[in-house]
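Replying to the earlier thread about multi-chain prediction with a worked example.

Input:
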Amino acid sequence: MMGHRQVHRTIQASIGTLLTFMLVVGVSACGSSSTSSGKGPISVLMGTAPDSLDPGLGATTQSYEATWITYTGLVTYAHASGEAGTKLIPGVAQSLPTVTNGGKTYTFMLRKGLVYSNGAPVKASDFAYAIERAIKLGWGSESFLTENIAGAEEFQKGKAASISGIQTDDATGRITIQLVAPYGPFLNVLAFPAAGLVPSGTPMKSLGNDPPPGVGPYEIESVVPNKSFAMVLNPNWSKDAIPGIPAGHENIDVSIVSNNQSQAEQVLNNSADVFDYNDTIPPTLISQIESQASDRFAKEPTVSGLYFFLNTKEAPFNNARARQAVNYGLNRQALQRLDSGMLQPACFFLPVGMPGHPTNAPCPYGEPNAQPDLAKAKELVRQAGLEGAPVTVWGGSRAPHKEFIDYYTSMLNEIGFKATEKIVADAQYYATVGNLSNKAQTGFLSYSQDFPNPLDFYQLLDAQSILPTENHNLSQVNDPHIQSELASLGPIPSSQLSSVVPRWQALDEYTAKQAYLAVSGYEEVPKFFSDRINFGAAIFHPVYGNDWSSLELK
Amino acid sequence: MVAFVARRMGSLVAVLFAITVLTFLIFQAIPDGDPALRMAGRLASPQQVQAVRVQWGFDKPIYVQYAKTMEKVLDGSVISYSQQVNVEQEIVRDLPPTISLALGAGVIWLVFGVLFGLLSAVYAGRWLDRLLSVVALTGISMPVFFLGAIMLYWLGYKWGLLPLGGYVPLTVDPWGWFTHMLMPWVALSVVSVGVYSRVLRANVLDVMREDYVRTARAKGLSERRVLVRHVLRNSLMGIVTLWGLDFAWVIGGGAILVESVFNLGGVGQYAAQSIGRLDVPPVMVITMLVACAVVVLSAIVDIFYAVLDPRVRL
Amino acid sequence: MRTLLRNRVALAFGALFVAIVFACLLAPVYAKDVAHTGPNDNHITETVNVGGKQVDVVSPTGVPIGPTWKGRFFLGADSNGRDVAVRLLYGGRNSLEIAGIATLITMLLAILLGTLAGYMRGIFDGVLSRLFDLVWAYPAVLLGVALGVALAVGGIDLGLFTLHSGSLLLPAFVIGIVFFPYVAKPLRAQALSLREREFVDAARVQGVGPLRIMLDEILPNLTSSIVVFVPLIIANAILLEAGLSYLGAGVQDPNPSWGTMLADGIRLIPGAIHLVLVPGIMLVLTVLSVNVFADGVRDALDPKATVRGRL
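Result:
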């Protein structure tokens, strides 16, 4: 039987040994940050499987989350949250390009000494190969390439064996790209993972189940379609390889869990680490999470807007008063509740975080967070002589968009229209309202940025976008002031965007006054982790969501 | 016997052909709408739609279209354009949960249906019989997905007794497989248990009135022996037919309703999701395959019936 | 008939069914005078007085209120702040209307074609029997789904009449087609055997035309079978409509039906369970009452029949 003193000393000795042990282990764990700490892997959950993990095919946000840190292109985005993350930085190129020929020629120099994840050296001609591959495979957003790069359309149609507008020199590392016409956001296009380099000779077929090697902090392995895949730290990536692209901390196991409730519960009770920001946390759980886990949950704004389009070419919304009435009557709090509280009420077309979002202007038709002025709305409808005017409200079947339409139709009836809703299958929705022969008067519209350049959003209000089918300008806006502004602001390259922000802001304030759309607000998404993850250090990127390379375990 | 089987096979092939034609007509020959656009899906570029048009033969007469469609189905080369996934491969991947569901539920309702039916017949008129009748009737009157949702809510979410849905393969974790399948099995079985017990009860009561049972009783066999030996054997045929048809019903309908509630990721859920996306190729292929499977199953049941009862082979 | 009237349980459930139908027909009255709201009126940001406190109809995170057991929101609200009790009644109207019309279509087709096939035999029977077998062999839910999906987008134009995609007649049409062989085949078998009876022979010898024979001799003898089938088909039609609407291949938005209400409720599990329980219990009660009544009818007319409860 040990006496008190002896117990005390035994404990001291044990603690000492333990501390020494931890010190030794800790020291040996510090070193090149491209080896994991051994505490991982981090388990990330996804609600929907990526459409493809082949960079030349994948076009959904789930796919990009994995491919942007695996396949680096000539340029990429800064790894930072908020507006800092919208900045373009050189990727496999030494620096941002020289732009000449009135904005039509982009010249890059490849960085020296880069290797792929399989050790093979990176060549300049790999860039041309990657672009050709993305077009050959039929990447969902390939029109950004075929419409802008000279010779790309001929290549796609099979009339040319290669893209005439891309010239590369493996000896010097020079890459020159000719555009069809100046296109301001072209650098953003080059930042897509589809423009990320892959070795020349990579098979021209879908490699979604066994993705090709790339240049980046991670490589993708062990793909089980629709079930899981693994992000493994790239052994051939040195943390100094590309400044601005940090190495990852841990290996990552990604699993597809389509039940949102199950996903959220796993993260809440710490049996999984990351909740898919693309999914909605079931409303009953949000209150529980906000009280129990407030230190690891935050609502992150995204650059995406929820709107109702108002067709200016058909009655009744060809009448400006009718459109103003809708804006006065819209109850954004109601829409926020329908979106489980994940909507930031707003009145401007460009969302927060997009350069050009008006920061100082008041809303022309009532503050978004206040109760709507239904009396004024009814008055305007009456003044316009449009009481009882029939309106068909279009919507898709997916929740919560269908619920938005249910509310919106009810509101239109309240302010004096005779509105009935027409819900079509979600898969057909945009094709249906985008077909001008359907004469869609109003309906749901949502838009997420392809890249942080306001020109991306303004194609929705560009008269040149109006097409008989696949129309994107659903309000059929043809406004000379907007057209002239777009003509002069459009060609300005993304790298010089900050200098013209005040003009974009002025344009957006003008658009709000015209009430071409009824703006509900901007979507927020959940940044929700287990308590193993260092929440504050994790980056939420404005374009790609959770930056997995920034995830570290405490 | 051989002649009977041959004839049955012949009519089977005819019905299978007719089913494929019917499915084809329903999906391809819908008036109004460009089938190529529908097949290709929302994100298709005009070139992709044209490629689809050529591949499926939409620019050709209807019998050519049918031939091309069947060629793709039998080849295993049907692609779901909205997902860029090979439909038949996806179906194969999704088979384990559906088969686990159908087989497990089949065993449960057979056992309990027969049990309840026998109990009801033996205690005919008494409180146990009435209670089981009520249970049976309520089971028949309930939509399977409602029952499934209720069980999921109470047994899963509220009391945490069973997992919240999802599927665990038998080979990975047998106990997990069992706990995940238990609620779906019960949801599906309740309906059939109801039907079986009522049918079996009526059958048993009928047979119990027959002369030879009375003779058997007179011979001094105990009540239970009488039941089991004579009655059950004669009710067997009815049960076999019913079971075959019910199994077909699970695959053909029950699975699609229950799998979505419990997120089992089986063929039924794949069909349900495709419906929601208006993704036609998977719905068409699944419908065709399942209808054919059902027809084949009933043919097997028929042949089995003929083996048991020579009078049927006329 | 007398046997039926003596079966008090069957009568009680029959009365329950009638009561449910009646209540659903009175939906507009309930909406106006008791709940003071329509089935599509949204009240998302409003509050309601519960036990002296003002409670949000829909919480800021989107959770709707449960039953208040008062005039307004008696059975609670859904995520759009609509009154569940009002929608239940209006949805019931739709669900029951569809089931009724579907049953009508099934019975008409089955009686017409079944009698024709059974009596006329020959080529009529050859073609019609194959048709019955084909539709019967096709699993009911899948056929309903296939037709429902295919027709949901554009409706159907049958020359004589057009059914638009939002119409309630569309699911009724689909369900009617799916079920008709289950009645046509037994009726055909009966017509086939009736044909050989002496009184039919006698009529034929007398030179009575086939149409007259079918109407005067065959049809009346099929009545008891027909009467037994009707409640059975009604019950199955209600269930199939619920299933199809749940999958999205039946009643299309914005029309409410018990099936679509169940779909909305199941999607929100585990929150707001009242959105699942209310339409579900209503469905079970309705179908149960039809089934018990059907049992009674069958007992009275044909006690030896072992017709299956579910198709």
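Chain A touches chain B through 25 residues (CB under 8 Å).

Feel free to reuse this layout for your own posts.
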